[in-house]
Amino acid sequence: MVGFTRRQLLGLLATAAIAGCAQPQQADPPLPMGAPLPKAAKQDAPKVDVGDVPATFRVKFETTKGDFVIEVHRDWSPHGAARFYELVKTGFYDDCRFFRVLPGFMAQWGIHGDPSVMKNWRDANISDDRPSGENRQSNVRGMVTFAKSGRPNSRSTQIFANYANNSRLDADGFTPFGQVLSGMEVLERLNSKYGESASGEQGAIQEQGNAFLDQAFPGLDSIKKANFVDSESTSNAGKSDDNKLDETEKP
Question: How many domains are contained in the chain?
Answer without folding.
Answer: 1
